[in-house]
């Protein structure tokens, strides 16, 4: 009955349930990659490491933003994965 309160379809009624969960997992991985890229930039020592860190950070940010836009377009939020929080943007 909790699904009615939040307006979320149960798993059986949503044919894209698994795809939504996989998208949310990809978003979590992308967020972690982005955080690692930020860390890498903070500790870059020479010019080559800085250049690489900037490139990696920009790529991680673009991937994370792309996945968030996809989730928003598909109206996917964290409650689809049973996380208990919304991740709407």
TrEMBL record:
<protein>
    <submittedName>
        <fullName>YaaL family protein</fullName>
    </submittedName>
</protein>
<dbReference type="InterPro" id="IPR019644">
    <property type="entry name" value="DUF2508"/>
</dbReference>
<dbReference type="Pfam" id="PF10704">
    <property type="entry name" value="DUF2508"/>
</dbReference>
